[in-house]
C-alpha cells in the first residue's frame, strides 16, 4: 500500500503547470468514438480514469497511444459496441460512452456505471434524453441494452442541468438526424471544451456555456489535434493549499474565468489572488478569515468538487464558515478524517459548520473519495508534524501526480510504500 507522507506547518513557495482537466478529457475521449480519423489530445493528463477510458476505447476496437502528454486515439477500426461490466464499474463517467457508441453503431451495451463515492448519482436524465431521441433502452440485471433504428434530433428539456447528461446527449445528437436542442443544459467550462473539440472535428454545436445547446446532427467528423483545457479543480486545490499553509504560489495555465466562485471565497478569506495571461498567483499571509456561507451549485455557482478543499483551507480561519452541499448527498465523508487532524466541524445533513481552530496536528488519515482525499492533503500542509494519507487510489483517479505538484509548490511531501 502506498501513502503520502506530508510534513506540514511551513509556507508554500513555488510554481506549477496545471494539468489538463479530468472532467473535460473523459467526455472528449468518448467523443473520439464518433470520429473516423486520428484525434490527438495535447495536455492530456495521465490519470487512472484516462487509463480506464483508453481500455474502454480498446475494447471497442479503437487504438490509443501516448507520446509525452499527447494521446492519439483512432476510432476508424471500431468493431464492438459493448463495454464490459468491470470497466463500467471503474468510473461513473464511463456512462458518457453510451451516447457516443449509440450514435456511431446504432446500438450499445454496458453495465450500470459503478461507484457510490459521493452519493447515489442516478442516470435517469441521461436515459430519458436518449429515449426521447428514439433509443430503446432496457435495463436488465444491472446491464443497459440500447438500440435504435435511428436517432432523431429534437428538443430535450433537462429537469436539472446535469453535466454528464448534457455531454451524453451532445454526443448522441452528433449522430442524430436533424437538430437537437438541449434546454437547461449544464454550463460548465468542460461542456464548452467538449463542444470546442467536436467543432474542431467538423461538428456543428452552438450555445455551449449557455443554457441552450444546439447540435446539428450527422456531420462527418474528421480527426484533429486539440488541447484539453486546464483542470479548474486541480487549480482550486492548489489555491486552497496556499490558503491553508500560507505562502506564495503561481499556477501556470490556470484561468481565473473558470474559477470565479472559488477565487471570490479565497479573496474573502484574505488571500491576494491575481491573474495574468499565463496563469494565477496567490499570496496568503497571516490568518485566514471565515467566509460567508459556501453553497455548492451548478456552474457558475460554487463547484461541489472544490467544497472539500476550501473547507480544508478554512480549518484554522478566524470564525465559523457554513457549507451547504446541494449536489451530492454523501460529500462530507472527508470530515471524519479532518477531525482526526484536530478540525472542529459539525455536520447537519447537507450543512457543515467549520469552527476555526488555532492548530491542526498530523495524523494517519485515509482518502474517502477523490476530492475528499485532496482536502486531507490541503489540511496536512498546514498541520504541525507528520500526516500519513492512505487509500491513494482515489486521488490517483483525478490528480496526475499530487506529490509532484505539491512538492513543486514547496510542500514537504513524499510518496512511500508501506
Ligand atoms: C460531473 C463531474 C463531477 C462534478 C459534477 C457536478 C465529471 C466526470 N464529473 O459529474 O466531478 O462533481 O459534474 O459538477 O464530469 N442527476 C440526476 N439524474 C441524472 C444525472 C444527474 O438526478 O441523470 C443529479 C445528480 O444526482 C446531482 C446533479 O444532478 O445531484 C448533478 O449531477 P451531474 O451534473 O450529472 O454530475 P456528473 O455529470 O455525474
Secondary structure elements and pairings:
Layout: E1 2-8, E2 12-17, H1 22-31, E3 38-42, H2 48-59, E4 63-67, E5 70-74, E6 82-83, H3 85-90, H4 97-105, E7 107-111, H5 124-132, E8 136-140, E9 143-147, E10 155-157, H6 163-174, E11 179-183, H7 189-200, E12 204-206, E13 213-216, E14 225-227, H8 232-245, E15 247-252, H9 260-268, E16 272-276, E17 279-284, E18 294-295, H10 307-313, E19 320-324, H11 335-340, E20 344-348, E21 351-355, E22 364-366, H12 370-380, E23 385-390, H13 393-396, H14 402-408, E24 412-417
Parallel strand pairs: 2-15, 3-14, 6-7, 10-11, 18-19, 22-23
Antiparallel strand pairs: 1-23, 1-24, 3-5, 4-5, 7-9, 8-9, 11-13, 12-13, 15-17, 16-17, 19-21, 20-21
The structure holds uridine-diphosphate-N-acetylglucosamine (UD1).
Shape: elongated
The structural class is: alpha/beta
The CATH first-level class of the largest domain comes to: Alpha Beta
In which order are the strands of the major sheet placed? 22-23-1-24
Helix content: 25-40%
Give the tally of β-strands: 24
Number of domains: 2
Strand content: 25-35%
Query: Segments where pLDDT lies below 50 for 5+ residues?
Result: none
Q: Bound small molecules, which ones?
A: uridine-diphosphate-N-acetylglucosamine
Query: What's the architecture of the largest domain in CATH terms?
Result: Alpha-beta prism
Outline:
The protein is α/β, with parallel strands linked by helices and 418 residues long. It has 14 helices and 24 strands. The chain is elongated.
Amino acid at each position: 500500500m502506498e501513502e503520502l507522507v506530508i510534513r506540514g506547518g511551513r509556507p508554500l513557495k513555488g510554481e506549477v503547470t496545471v494539468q489538463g482537466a479530468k472532467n473535460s478529457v473523459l467526455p472528449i475521449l468518448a467523443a473520439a468514438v464518433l470520429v473516423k480519423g486520428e484525434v490527438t489530445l495535447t495536455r492530456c493528463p495521465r490519470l487512472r480514469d484516462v487509463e480506464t477510458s483508453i481500455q474502454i476505447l480498446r475494447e471497442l476496437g479503437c487504438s490509443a497511444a501516448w507520446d509525452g502528454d499527447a494521446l492519439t486515439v483512432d476510432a476508424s477500426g471500431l468493431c464492438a459496441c459493448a463495454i464490459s461490466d468491470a470497466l463500467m464499474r471503474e468510473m461513473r463517467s464511463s456512462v458518457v460512452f453510451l451516447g457516443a457508441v449509440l450514435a456511431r453503431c446504432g446500438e450499445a451495451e454496458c453495465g450500470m456505471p459503478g461507484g457510490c463515492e459521493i452519493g447515489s448519482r442516478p442516470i435517469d436524465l441521461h436515459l430519458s434524453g436518449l429515449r426521447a431521441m428514439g433509443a430503446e433502452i432496457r435495463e436488465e440485471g444491472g446491464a443497459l441494452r440500447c438500440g435504435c433504428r435511428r436517432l432523431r434530433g429534437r428538443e430535450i428539456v433537462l429537469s436539472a442541468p446535469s453535466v454528464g447528461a448534457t455531454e451524453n446527449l451532445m454526443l448522441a445528437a452528433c449522430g442524430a438526424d436533424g437538430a437537437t436542442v438541449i434546454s437547461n443544459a449544464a454550463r460548465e467550462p468542460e461542456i464548452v471544451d467538449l463542444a470546442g473539440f467536436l467543432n474542431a472535428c467538423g461538428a456543428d454545436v452552438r450555445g455551449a456555456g449557455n443554457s441552450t445547446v444546439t447540435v446539428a446532427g450527422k456531420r462527418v467528423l474528421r480527426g484533429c489535434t486539440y488541447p484539453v483545457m486546464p483542470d479548474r479543480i486541480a487549480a482550486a486545490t492548489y489555491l486552497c493549499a496556499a490558503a491553508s499553509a500560507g505562502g506564495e504560489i503561481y499556477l501556470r495555465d490556470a484561468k481565473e474565468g473558470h474559477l470565479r466562485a472559488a477565487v471570490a471565497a479565497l479573496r474573502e478569506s484574505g488571500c491576494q489572488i491575481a491573474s495574468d495571461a499565463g496563469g494565477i498567483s496567490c499570496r496568503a499571509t497571516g490568518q485566514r478569515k471565515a467566509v460567508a456561507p459556501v453553497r455548492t451549485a451548478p456552474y457558475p455557482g460554487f463547484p461541489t468538487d472544490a467544497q472539500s478543499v476550501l473547507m480544508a483551507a478554512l480549518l484554522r480561519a478566524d470564525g465559523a464558515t457554513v457549507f451547504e452541499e446541494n449536489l451530492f448527498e454523501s460529500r462530507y465523508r472527508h470530515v471524519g478524517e479532518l477531525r482526526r487532524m484536530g478540525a472542529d466541524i459539525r455536520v447537519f445533513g447537507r450543512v457543515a459548520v467549520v469552527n476555526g481552530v488555532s492548530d491542526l496536528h498530523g495524523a494517519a488519515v485515509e482518502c474517502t473519495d477523490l476530492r475528499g482525499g485532496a482536502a486531507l492533503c490541503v489540511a496536512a500542509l498546514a498541520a504541525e508534524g507528520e500526516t500519513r494519507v492512505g487509500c491513494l487510489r482515489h486521488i490517483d483517479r483525478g490528480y496526475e501526480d499530487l506529490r509532484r505538484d505539491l512538492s513543486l509548490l514547496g510542500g514537504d511531501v513524499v510518496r512511500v510504500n508501506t
